[in-house]
Amino acid sequence: MHPDTPMRAMLLALLLIAGLARAEALDTRFTYQGFLEQDGEAIDGICDLTFELFDALTAGTRLAANQFAVHPVRQGVFTATLDFGDRFDGGDRWLSIRARCPANVGAFGDPFAPRHPITATPYALYAATAGSVRGSGNIDLAASTADAGNVLKEGRLFLHDQGHANTFLGLDAGGAIAGGERNTAVGDGALAANTAGSVNTAVGEGALGASTTGSYNVAVGGRALAANVEGVGNTAVGTGALAENTASGNTAVGHGALASNTYGSN
């Protein structure tokens, strides 16, 4: 077929990203399959193909390009594995394609119009609102700081280890800790106000929730030691145990044990 005769490409499918099922080796490749025809007939032969990635349907900025020389086309169908690198950040992406058939003869034709949108499959690389993460490999996070290395839920801290030798699991657990260390908090709001307390263990919703600088406390149970701000050396085991207490050196075991005690040391 004469190279100056207009060709037309039809989108067939965007296939799976290569390696997507291998969570431990996720890369930026994906497979594109299309269809070329000329004068209403499917092309069968060898073509040169170029793929360019843009951020708009028309005009826009070219973000990356891939080129394939002497690429086989069989009964109009061609398949190419594309790799534009880390160019998928949640914004719109469009694919511009040009072909030269047969290969190495004449010039490339105009880009096929319109550009093809890059749809859901490549955006598995960038899941801004992912409902779940699946895979058999590891998730390697950066060191936990206020701005990185954390797992968020609904925009709030859910899993992190900010500070030194701390472990926090639960919405807002651990709070905005600045100087404390060796704390463990499990449960929504556990140790949520902590800024500098150390060697605390809080297990349960709201356990030690008001503590800011208290240390060496153990609270196991929902709202155990919930109101204690600066106390030291308290042990509360049971839902609501020592819930209102703000002093130090107390031990209470049982549901609601010493729940109304505020200042005593028992």
What is the tally of helical segments?
Answer: 0
Strand order of the largest sheet: 9-10-11-12-13-14-15-16
Tell me the major beta sheet: 8 strands, mixed
Report the uncertain regions. Answer: 1-5, 11-25
Strand content: 25-35%
Q: Helices and strands, in N-to-C order?
A: EEEEEEEEEEEEEEEE
> Structural class, from secondary structure content?
mainly beta
What is the CA–CA distance across the termini?
95 Å
Q: Using DSSP, what is the number of strands?
A: 16
Mean pLDDT score, rounded? 83
Topology:
Elements: E1 7-14, E2 29-38, E3 41-42, E4 45-54, E5 62-73, E6 77-83, E7 94-100, E8 116-117, E9 151-153, E10 156-160, E11 167-169, E12 184-186, E13 201-203, E14 218-220, E15 235-237, E16 251-253
Could you write a compact summary of the structure shown?
With 266 residues, the chain is mainly beta.
Q: Keywords for this structure?
A:
266 residues; mainly beta; eight-stranded mixed sheet; four-stranded antiparallel sheet; 32% strand; rod-shaped
Describe this structure in words.
This protein starts with 6 loop residues before the first strand and ends in a 13-residue tail after the last strand. It has an 8-stranded mixed beta sheet with strand order 9-10-11-12-13-14-15-16, with no helix packed on it. Strands 1, 2, 3 and 6 form a 4-stranded antiparallel beta sheet that branches. Residues 1-5 and 11-25 have low confidence and may be disordered. The chain has strands at 7-14, 29-38, 41-42, 45-54, 62-73, 77-83, 94-100, 116-117, 151-153, 156-160, 167-169, 184-186, 201-203, 218-220, 235-237, 251-253. It has 266 residues and is mostly beta strands. The radius of gyration is 30 Å and the shape is rod-shaped.
